[in-house]
Amino acid sequence: MERTAVLGRLSWRFATVLEVTAETDQTHSIVLDAPDWPGHLAGQHVDVRLTADDGYQAQRSYSIASAPSDEQLVLTVERLDDGEVSPYLVDELRAGDRIELRGPVGGYFVWRPTDAVPALLVAGGSGIVPFRAMLREHGAAMSAAPIRLLYSARTFDQVIYREELLRLAARDGIDVSITLTRAQPAGWHGYTGRVDTALLRQVSWPPEEHPAVYVCGPTGFVEATANALVGLGHDPGRIRTERFGGTS
To answer: How far apart are CA 199 and CA 201, in angstroms?
Structure first.
């Protein structure tokens, strides 16, 4: 039975697009109807495969944006100008289209409602996507585990899930901090500048509280953040990282 379940997750399946929603001018969320979806954990990802008319295929991995308890499967994709898959998903995909999925994949970068320790989530750019799934699952399960999110975006307009994050910031048990690195709107009360040691010291849990730490974003962001956290005294074994390059 277990082998059958694994093979099922690793087999390609078709999913139908129900809705495409713009999160920012470069980022869209894709709501999918995936029959016989086996379920997933918050933080997992899927592989997406596109097939051209001449048979050429390209595939990329995308984090799942929806919580396991959500009714529909949601992916959020950032458009990369030199990408092979993301421009089609963001610019061309419409309701009623079908895409191929494989997954869910990954068991390391996940958060479970049974996790009771404090959690620190640090996101750069579209690295916020798996954290949306975690935060939604935290709310659905009414988890008592405190979570702090530190999210770095270039501008206010490039903050993905902006309205939802603002709502989450008002909930007990969840602290949301946003830093804008390039420009800030008038009256901005959040942080400014890149995530660095000083900001992490201010926002993160003290190392002696042994928080679970998750860092997701571009490779340089993840490496710099993880190194800074270790420098602050956090246990490297409790820092889970997920990074992406420029080929999505």
So the answer is: 5
